[in-house]
Design a protein that fits this description.
The protein is of the alpha+beta class and about 80 residues long. The chain has 2 helices and 4 strands; from the N terminus they run ββαββα. About 0% of the residues are buried.
Amino acid sequence: MQAVVQKWGNSLGFRIPSLWAKDNNVKSGSKIEVIVEKGKMIILPQKKSLDDMMAMVNADNIHSEISTGHAIGNEEW
């Protein structure tokens, strides 16, 4: 995969190919992690923390209890 580096203000930048963005669920405004190792730049989609995921739970997307049937054996509920 190749990209062209362009000047953006005082910085340099390149476009992230749409196929990689789609495969890694990266959209405009998404945070990414950039790691530099031995002269290479590694770009990773930033993983969401538990707090980030819990903040997305609301009354519209929370589900009710799910029944798994009656207890079998010595389980205590």
